[in-house]
Amino acid sequence: MKGKTLAWTMIAVVVALAAMFLVRLHVHRPPSIRRSIPIEGAVIRRDADTRKELPIENVTVTASDGVVSATTQSDAAGYFKLDLQRQVWSGQPIVVHFRHPDYEPYDLNLQAGRLVIDESLHVVAMVPLPESPKGAPGAKESVVSNIRVRYTINSRTQSNVGSAVKTFQVVNQGNVPCVKHQLCSPDKKWKASRGSATLDAGQDNTFGNVRASCIAGPCPFTKIDDSGFKNGGRYITVSAIDWSNTATFLLEAEVFHTAISSNVRESYPVIFGRALNFTLPPTQEGVSLEGEIDGAPMVFPLGPDLYLSWATCTARTSQGSDQTTVYRCELKPGYRF
Questions:
Q1: Regarding beta strands 296-301 and 284-293, do their DSSP bridges make them parallel or antiparallel, or are they unpaired?
Q2: What's the pTM value of the predicted model, to 2 decimals?
Q3: How far apart are CA 80 and CA 106, in angstroms?
Q4: Rounded distance, CA 301 to CA 287, Å?
Q5: Phi-psi bin for 204: left (phi > 0), alpha (psi -120 to 50), beta?
Q6: R_g over Cα of the chain
Q7: Strand, coil or helix: what is 6?
Q8: What is d(CA 262, CA 52) in angstroms, rounded to the nearest whole number?
Q9: pLDDT digits over 104-139, tens only?
């Protein structure tokens, strides 16, 4: 009896020690285990007028808890996102630094916790630095006025330039029983024959409104295959089978010429403060700004580098399905609207 009691006591001690070990293992996890903390938001310019809170591009965003850090830059829309790989059980506070040469430094303190992840969208408004005066004191600023945006839209146009007609025959003898391995009628009873015709619309032309029909002979005992012309195109082919006497078929189509047409269009930008904003469709080409500098009319091609002598421009593509391009041009020192 004492032996059984001793055995059960030893088992209980072993279970208790094992439980204590598992609890300690759960509480004191290895510090090398890490988790990803997403930090996402947008950087804008601080202004009392919300219409002038423009997005800021190329802001260096650095998140750190004193041990590990992650860095990224804001895009043309001011958007940023980074993932900080920190220790699971770290209780160190997270500080996000925002730095740009034209703005005052900004530090964002995030809520820190061992099991808490702050998934808020952080909108950071940075204060612009005072612009350093250029030129002689009291120098007159050049006036930019009457700004218009000119661009070209290229589109494909099709014009009907004629039609095409072709006939062909399928020669066959009716009432001939079908033999294995021969082309036969749909019910596999009578021997059949096949015939076809092809048309070429020519360079830069396509066929449309294609029609094929049986016009002579035992048409009820024929079948037309439209797979070679139902989608149009430069080349079209029609084929038919006939399981009675010889039949005649007609192929007709309209010919369309494809050309590229260019249309020059104009739009007017919206001006808030020292920045003008405008949007253009994704098919635009040859963007330029027309306006006046101190009353003198001028044309300023924007070019792929978005360079203007009197403004700094950026462009970004919207996230909608229309893929609109959003432009923003901010005046350089020495100019005003």
A1: antiparallel
A2: 0.54
A3: 15
A4: 6
A5: left
A6: 38
A7: helix
A8: 35
A9: 999 998 876 555 666 788 999 999 888 665 545 566
